[in-house]
Hints:
It contains ten helices and four strands, in the order H-H-E-E-H-H-H-H-H-H-H-H-E-E. It is mostly helical. Helix 1 runs parallel beside helix 4 (158-212).
Amino acid sequence: xxxxxxxxxxxxxxxxxxxxxxxxxxxxxxxxxxxxxxxxxxxxxxxxxxxxxxxxxxxxxxxxxxxxxxxxxxxxxxxxxxxxxxxxxxxxxxxxxxxxxxxxxxxxxxxxxxxxxxxxxxxxxxxxxxxxxxxxxxxxxxxxxxxxxxxxxxxxxxxxxxxxxxxxxxxxxxxxxxxxxxxxxxxxxxxxxxxxxxxxxxxxxxxxxxxxxxxxxxxxxxxxxxxxxxxxxxxxxxxxxxxxxxxxxxxxxxxxxxxxxxxxxxxxxxxxxxxxxxxxxxxxxxxxxxxxxxxxxxxxxxxxxxxxxxxxxxxxxxxxxxxxxxxxxxxxxxxxxxxxxxxxxxxxxxxxxxxxxxxxxxxxxxxxxxxxxxxxxxxxxxxxxxxxxxxxxxxxxxxxxxxxxxxxxxxx
Length: 412
């Protein structure tokens, strides 16, 4: 172990310079910046989905007005039809005004894809922001003898321990950035499916008008609705496959994490088998160097806890995406069932209607499958409730003797 006495970068001669705690903190700052940008995108997409709800409401108002107009003509209901059309047009315009900027922003690819990790202990590094303003992340090769040093934890100096813990926190921050990317991709999928539902409503209205009323000049309007609705549905499904893959990857990451030991169990293996064994601390020990290392250990444990919560949030995003599949499937099936129930069915149209019902049914079943697993997972973990427990650390005494403050979800 060689300590640099000039700038105190706590370097080991066998470790790369970026393995120091300050370069690792810089990497974590970049990862935190990426997570914030992804969170901004998800918030914007929530606004976009709200705009699409306005849009669908406007379609419903216009559909009612056009149906009344085609049925009763320019008669006593004309003022009411004008109000409905005006209100529907305003809702459609307002919904698009909310959605289109979000759609442009969603096209920005902010996803974080972790670089390949070699076997052994490696270090995540980054290059400074260049002209693009986006830092590039890459990993070092495996550090020689690092695993052996880590395995002999009790013989490491406090500085060496803190360096390993800093590297652990960076790896945990990297996982959170990746999970945030997966949640953002699933949010894009949910927004796309909301647009698909709007397109299905548009196209369904046009098809119903074509089949219900005789051919007149109105048919140009009906064909316009069908064409626009079809394009909207295809545009929405453009986001479906990436969201589907992200959901499967996020769920797989959560399942794998259940087999991985936490940071506390890695450092103090006896705790995994016997809760009567505690870290090598004595009540008489003063904070000093152990206090500094203890703080680093506690930060790493809390980072590990945040990662568990991030994995659970990803599972919950998986559940919400499954419910988006269900809603989209119900919309498609409802259009098909409505066309069969209320309109004359020819063989060709009958096949088309049944295809809609079956397509919607497949989405519903798949969405319920996603939802079922996620909800079962949610019930198994207390983090999805409002109870909050905060430790009061005192690094001069063993962790088992720390005090706690409990906040019930009823008090929050």
